[in-house]
Amino acid sequence: DYRDNRPDANRRLFDSLASGTGLRQSARTLKLTVRSTELKFRKLARHLRRLGINLARPFEDGATFQFDELETYETRRNTRPLSVPVLIERESRFIVWAEAAPIRPRGKMSEARKRAILDEDARLGPRKDLSARSVRRTLARGARLSDRLPSIVFDTDEKSSYPKHLRRAFGSARKLVHRKTNSKLARLTWNPLFPINHTEAMMRDLLGRLRRDSWLVSKARRYLDLGLQVHMAYRNFVRRRFNADDEEQTPAKMLGFVRRQLSPAELLRWRQDWGWRSIHPTSRIGDSVVGGAAG
């Protein structure tokens, strides 16, 4: 909280944003200006991104990954769609990584929509499709944490580009088991992709920026990326995997990344910009670092 105005509001702002509340309503509740709330959100989200990277450890044998992409938009749904690749560990529901990428508008094209797309291309230039790059970046996060695994098990839908991206991320020489499921199957508990579908549903519920036709939609993609970091920190380290689990059974604890459930105050306690030399969030007096044993 160095040079931070109203550091007492940081934990409450995290609670508010992790519960799906927008910046303006959070500002009203915390008696802050909207600008101050925006700056706090950006600062906390960048801190939590470093924290998640620092605390992640190589996966142990038995880990299974699931991968999918959900679609949302920035500013305007008809002309500025986004793809959000999401990678999780299936049993723990740990979100390894998620980020947004611009894609070209597609689907039904009315005359009004065609004109809107042409007008926007004239103002901003043709919209690039960077979804493939974002998929590779997301899979690379998983690859860096799976070096110890004798085999890599991946569940995805039947999108034709996924096998190529998986081979590029995990290497053709390694034993890669790629299991495909038809995306048109009902999204019920018996569906093999239910864990990733359930994770995406929770993301849309607890991250207002992902809700369809919402006032909370991000005006710029980079702020959606920051919102995803807040959600991942909450989902991985604070919230229980399932409501029926023990209170401290968080995804990160199940994987051995931390020894217990973390509180929001602990997530925000120590700076994390020194990598593995950063102080561990469970340390009360700063006597242990992230690079040591799990806290």
Protein described:
It contains ten helices and six strands; from the N terminus they run αααββββααβαβαααα. The chain has helices at residues 10-18, 23-30, 34-55, 111-124, 131-144, 162-170, 194-206, 221-238, 251-254, 264-267, and strands at residues 64-73, 81-89, 94-98, 101-102, 151-157, 175-181. With 295 residues, it is of the alpha/beta class. The two termini are 22 Å apart. The chain is globular and about 60 Å long. Strands 1, 2, 3, 4, 5 and 6 form a six-stranded mixed sheet that branches.
Taking all residues together, what is the mean pLDDT?
Answer: 92
Task: Bin the helical content.
Answer: 25-40%
Rg over CA atoms:
20 Å
Backbone structural class: alpha/beta
Report the portion of residues in β strands: 5-15%
Quaternary arrangement of the chains shown? single chain
The DSSP helix count reads: 10
Shape verdict: globular
Give me the secondary-structure topology.
Elements: H1 10-18, H2 23-30, H3 34-55, E1 64-73, E2 81-89, E3 94-98, E4 101-102, H4 111-124, H5 131-144, E5 151-157, H6 162-170, E6 175-181, H7 194-206, H8 221-238, H9 251-254, H10 264-267
Parallel strand pairs: 1-5, 5-6
Antiparallel strand pairs: 1-2, 2-3, 2-4
Helix pairs in contact: 1-2, 1-3, 2-3, 3-8, 5-6
